[in-house]
Design a protein that fits this description.
Blueprint (H helix, E strand, L loop, with lengths): L5 E9 L6 H10 L5 E2 L10 E2 L7 H5 L2 H4 L2 H17 L11 E6 L5 H12 L10 H5 L3 H10 L5 E4 L5 H14 L5 E8 L4 H10 L28 E9 H6 L6 E10 L12 H14 L8 E3 L6 H14 L7 E2 L2 H4 L6 H15 L1 E2 L22 E2 L4 E8 L3 E9 L1
Parallel strand pairs: 4-5, 4-6, 9-10, 9-13
Antiparallel strand pairs: 1-7, 1-8, 2-3, 6-7, 8-14, 11-12, 13-14
Length: 407
């Protein structure tokens, strides 16, 4: 074990596949997409979304519900589960040594659009004084600190769809620099709003398979045509491995490598040769002290957009010298949670290691012939794994790659 290893001692998950880590894992392993026509999206061209089912925020959060937006509710739910799972007592910990880092990709459209409506109607006196604190991207990190008594470094990280993974890498840096003893880190997003859907559909990023919602999100499939908007959150409890041992905590996995890069190429498209992706792969493996042969599985970014999947697949094929390990994209089931995706997929990669089972990629009926990958499909695949990689890439050329090792 390296002295740079960080223990993942708690996992909190809330996705369209389930309202906690256990049910989310079961849902992802089912290989059944959660996409559906969403009545709340109204008459936009692509009214598809993956919503968290049966989530009673008020029952869980009490008065925090009225002062916070849905992306905060999701983050708090995941944080509570992660802390319980880690066996930590927030009333007993040294809050000054607890940090919080949460990735968020976009501001709250729910609050901002409601405020704009008040403005355009000249109903100034009815505008909520909570408009600013509800809508800012740091609201999730701030609320976790308030609720849980965390007084160490806290921040929101925004690197588009790589935000959740970047937050975990940032948290690891805080621990290695001895600025914290515990960090609650991850990502959250609640983007299922008509304006968000319309904006992404105008870019051509969303699947238009409205006639077949369950079949809309189909990473690496030859018939893919875009992603499906989704909400969700994941928070991991991270500690230095020695600290986890000292309190007899049982890690789910070790977070042993992190690499990030920027393409510096385009505001939305990835570099066609994937040079930024590859730099992040190389940096993550070097940080972990591993090489490509040590990686047993890759949780791919796999958004189901035509070019992104091809570029990622080509880089993986090249990086692993034509023999990449088995790959999955859990976005086939969960949809694309934007800024939360990297954290959700890191949590699922952690559970993949723990269960020694790779979840299937939903809706993969025919692999794109331009893609040379062993993509797990139809059924979960038992597989011996010691180290796995989780990839996240975002608009603006943000790339973040995480390496996790079996505990």
């Amino acid at each position: 074990m390296s002295g740079r290893d960080i223990a993942v001692t708690g996992v909190g998950l809330i996705t369209a596949a389930g309202t906690d880590a256990v049910t989310s894992w079961q849902g992802v392993c089912s290989g059944i997409s959660t996409a559906a026509v969403d009545p709340e999206l109204g008459d936009v061209p692509v009214p598809l979304a993956c919503r968290v089912p049966d989530f009673d925020a008020a029952a869980l959060l009490g008065r925090a519900v009225w002062r916070t937006d849905r992306f905060v509710h999701l983050a708090l739910a995941a944080a509570h589960e992660a802390v319980r799972d880690a066996g930590l007592d927030t009333a007993a910990w040294d809050g000054a040594r607890v940090g919080v880092v949460v990735g968020v990709g976009t501001e709250s459209k729910e609050t901002s659009v409601a405020a704009l409506r008040k403005y355009t109607d000249h109903a100034y006196e009815t505008l909520s004084p909570l408009t600013v604190p509800r809508s800012t991207v740091n609201a999730a990190a701030a609320e976790i600190c308030i609720v849980m008594g965390a007084y160490g470094p806290s921040m929101a990280v925004t690197t588009a769809c790589a935000s959740g993974a970047t937050a975990l890498g940032t948290a690891r840096d805080l621990l290695l620099a001895d600025r914290c003893d515990i960090v609650l880190a991850g990502g959250t997003e609640a983007p299922c709003h008509p304006l968000t859907s319309l904006s992404f559909s105008q870019m051509g990023a969303l699947s238009r398979r409205v006639h077949d919602p369950r079949g809309a999100s189909r990473p690496f499939d030859s018939a893919r045509d875009g992603f499906v908007l989704a909400e969700g959150a994941a928070i991991l409890v991270l500690e230095r491995a020695a600290d986890a041992r000292a309190r007899s905590a049982r890690p789910h996995a070790y977070f042993c490598g992190y690499g990030s890069s920027t393409d510096g190429y385009h505001y939305a498209a990835a570099h066609p040769e994937g040079v930024g992706f590859e730099r992040a792969f190389t940096a993550a493996l070097a940080d972990a002290g591993l090489n490509g042969a040590d990686i047993s599985h890759v949780n791919a970014h796999g958004t189901a957009t035509v070019m992104n999947d091809r570029i990622e697949a080509a880089v993986l094929d090249r990086f692993f010298n034509g023999h990449p390990p088995p790959v999955t994209s859990t976005k086939g089931v969960t949809g694309h949670t934007l800024g939360a995706a990297g954290a959700i997929e890191a949590a699922l990669a952690t559970l993949t290691l723990q269960h020694q089972t790779i979840p299937p990629t939903a809706n993969l009926d025919q692999l794109d012939p331009a893609i040379n990958l062993d993509v797990v499909a139809k059924q979960p695949r038992p597989h011996r794994m010691e180290a796995v990689m989780s990839n996240s890439f975002g608009f603006g050329g943000h790339n973040a790659v995480l390496v996790l090792r079996q505990a």
